[in-house]
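Comment thread on ticket #2218

A.B. wrote:
> Attaching the input chain for the structure job we discussed in standup.
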Amino acid sequence: MKHPKRVLAGLALAATLALTGTGNAVAADTFIILQSTTSTQNSGLFDYMLPVFTKKTGIEVRVVAVGTGQALKNARNGDGDVLFVHAKPAEEKFVAAGFGVSRQDVMFNDFVIVGPAADPAKVGGMKDAPAALKMIAAAGAPFASRGDDSGTHKKERRLWNAASIDVDASSGSWYRETGSGMGATLNAAVGMGAYALTDRATWISFRNKGDFKVQVEGDKTLFNQYGVILVNPARHPAVKKELGQSFIDWVTGAEGQKTIDSYKLNGQQLFFANAN
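C.D. wrote:
> Ran it. Output below, let me know if you need it in another format.
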């Protein structure tokens, strides 16, 4: 049985083609739905990379850019063909539970802690992220959290745990959860003079920095790995197995990896391919 959302989307597209007299049944269905984290979209990587894939294969990629937690939930419900996210433990659980076929590394970058130039917690230049978070908590300096179960939020919570800080006890005081994406959370952080954890690609592409700068970086715990997973067609028969696998093969292959490495913004490379 096909997923109802897919059926409705297909009917709408078929009706459009019938009215215009263009396309055919095969071309109308030559697309995949990619459930992805927001950083790959907001950084401009997909706008740069996906047209290269489509030109080569004829397969359109329709991106649903949400937090990793929501992307995993959507894929569990069958709303997608491929996952492109960055929370490896959660991705491995997704596959182990039978919702994904297998998981492959694609690329990496890193997380950074940004904050105002005044640096009220005096963490500037530190390379120990949990120690810096302890100092932020001790100072009661405002910290803006996404609070949305995204890959970035999952990483942030692991760092607080490593620092032995119970942020739930401080929710609403110095620890402030936005429940929003990375861009909105960074805007909130700048507005309230709060520290925030962000992936470096989003920070580089973020335009409303004000006097904010990277305060903490270089800790191995800030490593940010991205993975790609084919949603299991045995669990959801509507999954486009061949088209989805074509995308995975391309993005983890030589051309896709080279395309990822070649994407730069303001002279800075945002992602580093490491599929192999």
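A.B. wrote:
> Thanks. Noting for the ticket: The CA atoms of residues 99 and 235 lie 7 Å apart.
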